[in-house]
Design a protein that fits this description.
The complex is a heterodimer of chains A (426) and B (381). By secondary structure, chain A is an alpha+beta fold. Chain A contains 16 helices and ten strands. Chain B has 381 residues and is of the alpha+beta class. Chain B is built from twelve helices and ten strands. The relative contact order of chain B is 0.15. Classes of the chains: A alpha+beta (426), B alpha+beta (381). Chain A: It is an enzyme of class 2 (transferase).
């Protein structure tokens, strides 16, 4: 009986009609049990993945995104899904694996989430039809097909990079780096993850001077080391955010995860958390210039050390540094301060001022927290389309402006909403 | 479509040793059984639908141990998993199911006439009675591995079948994603509503993907027969009522299940079943009957007795908190149910519960009256 063949063409015409309707609810509701059920083989050996693709055309698998508010849900259409569902990267990573986190997490209360991740460098290429509109949405219209991203880690170009310590409690710059040739955290196998750890730790062992430091593997950490790292606010924990766990990043925890930091505790690397590596430069007080100097110096040195062993970072001229989440493409850079703004934060113009300065506020506990008291985490909104130097300067200029406003309000003077900064370098 | 580890070809670029999970902190059945040699032999195998050994064990790698129960640490992605990965699963099944051998045959008995008594458990102590099991629809992948299309097809089949039930089984389906606020509240008040899993045991295996798509609850108008669709298994079938008439609960259970099975057969579908493993479900702990028959029973005195644990063990019973498997008991009220699933028939298991609970209540009454229970101590069943 050629049931499968006949069924396929029957279903193909039915589904072609449905696809043209572009109404997800109608697509799903019209799938009667009879359409699919009669094609089944009752054998215990199950259906092959290839047969499954015939039995379930893309329309049968299209996710229900009616309650969703993330970039993926805004960009995905049945046509795009249908075109991409059966494609794989050279490492067999699929579209469904990219979007799973966005299907599972309809929306975040404080931030419009991206709703998709890359499993490897090639994801951005193979699934460009969905990644590009998502990147455009998230990064203010940046078009990876035609635009080029500037990389600039020359910290000597920074001006006025020191803030008033009375307001700025701490300064921090972070980014991420991925090791080319190894799959990203949502997708990597245990051996790949261990390889990332090995490559990174070996390179970091070569750092000298003020950058010389030590690695603490999460599996081997002693109680005392753990407590110290917690007290220093360095220890990262197993992710609990469903945005990360649904993307598969927490698999095999805590295998091959760890923290490296220099002896002075001002340069810190996270290994195999949300990205292969997260690189952080930080210190108490308002010397953002020194923080960024160290950041650039450390990054360049680490890059040199991995090159020596034949490795490189994932990077291309359209997307800049390639990281797991499309929101971190380009520079992957978040430069920020913890700053006290008791009066300004209560001013109704606060949000608008931040917007125009291309800054973002968060609670001091990080992205999933609300601000507590008067201390805010203020950082750059943008990641892609502007260089590292440009973004850090934007933060510096912006924070100076905010502190200025705060001082004016202290004196009972009025403040002005600044003109909006231009989006991309012309 | 594949979940996380199914890009099984990449890992073949590394040796088995490089890929072998770190199980040094682990205490679950999978960690006890898996060895580097076994892993090396199994790592290049997959079922027809692409489920590999790393998919089977992911939940066990991610969850080193559970405080109240020794967990299995493995799941099946389809019916074939139990065959392709038998080298791993057979020893786990043997360990978990009291020495059940790969050559043993499992008896299915859903004839409630074969149950003796069971209608007279004292309602002053036995607050409610319940029997549940699961069923998987042959030909579809299981919850850790199924695609959205498959899950929806399962929902459609279930709803179609259930909608033709009549008499005491006539009822209604509530899809999780279409539920009104009012319906949701009612289902919560009835203690019927299941929520998106929060247990890391379930989440790590991929069962919560795409929630709440194609999940729902069906129950009869009398609220005594309930089916969960696409939670941890394709179908979970539950018969329950207040009080101690376990016989009635079991009779309804068997009748309902048999009807559902024939409705599926009419449409050309069967349940996953074989004579060695009985009914095939997602978790190896639920093989065989998949049956958990139990009561909520007040045992404030007996539960403090030093031999409580031993008595339960001899009776082949298990205690849980009244909130389900991940909870501890509150006050003196316990959920007491059969510890076994495989190697005993449904009738045999419910008989153990009925006889065992009767004895426990008798012991409770004695202790209440300040009397000894030494003469009541049971033999090992």
């Amino acid at each position: 009986m050629n049931g499968t063949g006949r069924l396929s063409s029957e279903m193909a015409s039915t589904f072609t009609r449905m696809l043209s309707r572009r109404n997800t609810a109608a697509l799903v509701a019209t799938l009667g049990a009879g359409t699919l059920a009669s094609g089944y083989l009752l054998s215990e050996s199950g259906i092959s993945a290839a047969d499954k693709k015939k039995l379930y055309p893309p329309s049968a698998d299209y996710p229900d995104l009616r309650k969703h508010n993330n970039c993926m849900a805004s960009a995905l259409t049945p046509a795009i899904y249908s075109h991409l569902r059966d494609k794989e990267t050279p490492n067999n990573w699929t579209l469904d694996q990219c979007i799973q986190t966005g299907v599972d997490n309809p929306g975040h209360p404080f931030i419009k989430t991206v709703g998709m991740v890359a499993g490897d460098e090639e994801s951005y290429e193979v699934f460009a039809d969905i990644f590009n509109p998502v990147i455009k949405d998230r990064h203010n219209g940046y078009d990876p097909k035609i635009m080029k991203h500037p990389t600039d880690l020359d910290s000597s170009k920074i001006t006025s990079g020191v803030f008033d310590d009375k307001y700025v409690l701490s300064s921090r710059v972070r980014t991420g780096r991925s090791i080319r040739g190894l799959m990203l955290p949502p997708a990597c196998t245990r051996a790949e993850r261990r390889e990332v750890e090995r490559v990174a730790v070996q390179a970091l062992a070569g750092l000298k001077g003020d950058l010389s430091g030590r690695y603490y593997s999460l599996t081997d950490m002693t109680e005392k080391e753990q407590q110290q790292l917690i007290d220093d606010h360095f220890l990262f924990d197993k992710p609990i955010s469903p945005l990360l766990t649904c993307a598969g990043m927490a698999r095999d925890w805590p295998d091959a995860r760890g923290i490296w930091h220099n002896n002075e505790k001002t340069f810190l690397i996270w290994i195999n958390e949300e990205d292969h590596t997260r690189v952080i430069s930080m210190e108490k007080g308002g010397n953002m210039k020194r923080v960024f100097d160290r950041f650039c110096r450390g990054l360049k040195e680490v890059e040199r050390l991995i090159h020596e062993r034949g490795w490189e970072f994932m990077w291309n001229e359209h997307l800049g540094y390639i990281l797991t989440c499309p929101s971190n493409l380009g520079t992957g850079l978040r430069a920020g301060v913890h700053v006290r703004l008791p009066l300004l934060s209560k001013d109704p113009r606060f949000s608008k001022i931040l917007d125009n300065l291309r800054l973002q506020k968060r609670g001091t506990g990080g992205v999933d927290t609300a601000a507590v008291g008067d201390v805010f985490d203020i950082s750059n909104l943008d990641r892609l389309g502007k260089s590292e130097v440009e973004l850090v300067q934007i933060v510096i200029d912006g924070v100076h402006y905010l502190i200025d406003c705060e001082k004016k309000l202290e004196k009972g003077q009025d403040i002005k909403v600044p003109a909006p900064i231009a989006q991309f370098r012309k | 479509m594949p979940f996380s580890n199914s890009h099984n070809k990449v890992k073949m670029n590394y040796t088995a040793e490089q890929e072998y999970p770190d199980l040094s902190q682990h205490n679950n059945h999978m960690a006890k059984v898996l060895t580097p040699e076994m892993y090396a032999n199994l790592r290049d195998k997959e079922t027809s639908s692409g489920f590999g050994v790393d998919d089977v064990i992911q939940t066990g790698v991610d969850n080193p141990g559970h405080p109240f129960i020794m967990t299995v640490g493995c799941v099946a992605g389809d019916e074939e998993t139990y065959e392709v990965f038998k080298d791993l699963l057979d020893p786990i099944i043997e360990d978990r199911h009291g020495g059940y051998k790969p050559t043993d045959k499992h008896k299915t008995d859903l004839n409630p006439e074969n149950l003796q008594g069971g209608d007279d458990l004292d309602p002053n102590y036995v607050l409610s009675s319940r029997v549940r099991t699961g069923r998987s629809i042959r030909g579809f992948c299981l919850p850790p591995h199924c695609s959205r299309g498959e899950r929806r097809a399962i929902e459609n089949l279930a709803v179609e079948g259930l909608s033709s039930l009549e008499g005491e089984f006539k009822g209604k389906y509530y899809a999780l994603k279409n539920m009104t606020e009012e319906e949701q509240q009612q289902l919560i008040d009835d203690h019927f509503l299941f929520d998106k899993p929060v247990s890391p045991l379930l989440l790590a295996s991929g069962m919560a993907r795409d929630w709440p798509d194609a999940r729902g609850i069906w129950h009869n108008d009398n609220k005594t027969f309930l089916v969960w669709v696409n939670e941890e298994d394709h179908l979970r079938v539950i018969s329950m009522q207040k009080g101690g008439n376990m016989r009635e609960v079991f009779t309804r259970f068997c009748t309902g299940l048999t009807k559902i099975e024939s409705l599926f057969k009419e449409k050309g579908h069967e349940f996953m079943w074989n004579e060695h493993l009985g009914y095939v479900l997602t978790c190896p702990s639920n093989l065989g009957t998949g049956l958990r028959g139990g009561v909520h029973v007040k045992l404030p005195n007996l539960s403090k007795h030093q031999s409580f644990g031993e008595i339960l063990k001899k009776l082949r019973l298990q205690k849980r908190g009244t909130g389900g498997v991940d909870t501890a008991a509150v006050g003196g009220t316990f959920d007491i149910s059969n510890a076994d699933r495989l190697g005993f028939s449904e009738v045999e298991l419910v008989q153990m519960v009925v006889d065992g609970v009767k004895l426990l209540v008798e012991m409770e009454k004695r202790l209440e009256a300040g009397q000894s229970i030494d003469d009541l101590m049971p033999e090992q069943k």
